[in-house]
Design a protein that fits this description.
With 183 residues, the protein is of the alpha+beta class. The protein has four helices and eight strands, in the order E-E-H-E-E-H-H-H-E-E-E-E. The chain folds into three domains: 1-53, no CATH class; 62-135, no CATH class; 149-183, no CATH class. Strand 3 and strand 4 form a beta hairpin.
Length: 183
């Protein structure tokens, strides 16, 4: 998706002391990714209709590894079940479930095992696709991803701004992870 469609662009960074002066004569080598859409228009967007810049690091994101599944067992009425294959045992869960009739326990156990296999398959597919994409990546691009540095900026302390020295954090978000430098 092109950045123009997402209403985003690389805009020149203007230092704080130069913000009130003319910026057209400023020759900067620093650019930041920013929204080009006006703030008033952003306020009217539905949740999830704005774009967050997504960075695909070469490291795996841990919170994508969910081991729980939810499924409906087809009975009359259907039974909604939640199962975590890391902490629960299939046999104990199948025979310990009081909502399933005794004559259905064996079929329920097989159904549960099939759902666990499907869940593991669904978890494995994105990992394999990601690994394949990384293996097929151009060496220069791969090196650029490995050497990328993130800067996190905090407001400069002035009499008008609160003191943020005690609350500075390197963490950015789950995609960008931690900043290399705090400014």
């Amino acid at each position: 998706m092109p950045m123009e469609a997402m209403k985003m662009a690389w805009v020149p960074y203007v230092p704080l002391e130069d913000r009130l002066s003319r910026t057209d004569s400023l020759k900067t080598k620093i650019f930041t990714l920013d929204y080009t859409q006006q703030r008033s228009a952003l306020e009217h967007l539905e949740t999830g209709r704005f774009c967050m810049p997504y960075y695909m690091p070469l490291q795996h994101i841990e919170d994508e590894d969910h081991t729980d599944i939810s499924f409906l067992y087809p009975l009359d009425p259907p039974i909604l079940c939640y199962f975590d294959w890391e902490t629960d045992d299939c046999e104990d869960y199948a025979y310990g479930n009081k909502d399933v009739p005794e004559d259905e326990k064996e079929r329920f156990k097989e159904f549960l095992k099939e759902k666990v296999r499907e869940g593991k398959r669904e978890l494995k597919q994105p990992k394999e696709a990601r690994k394949k994409a990384i293996d097929g990546m151009d060496p220069k691009t791969k090196e650029a991803f490995e050497n990328i540095k993130f800067y996190k900026f905090y407001p400069v302390k002035t009499p008008d701004t609160p003191d943020v020295t005690n609350v500075k954090s390197r963490y950015i978000n789950k995609y960008y992870r931690n900043a290399h430098y705090l400014m």
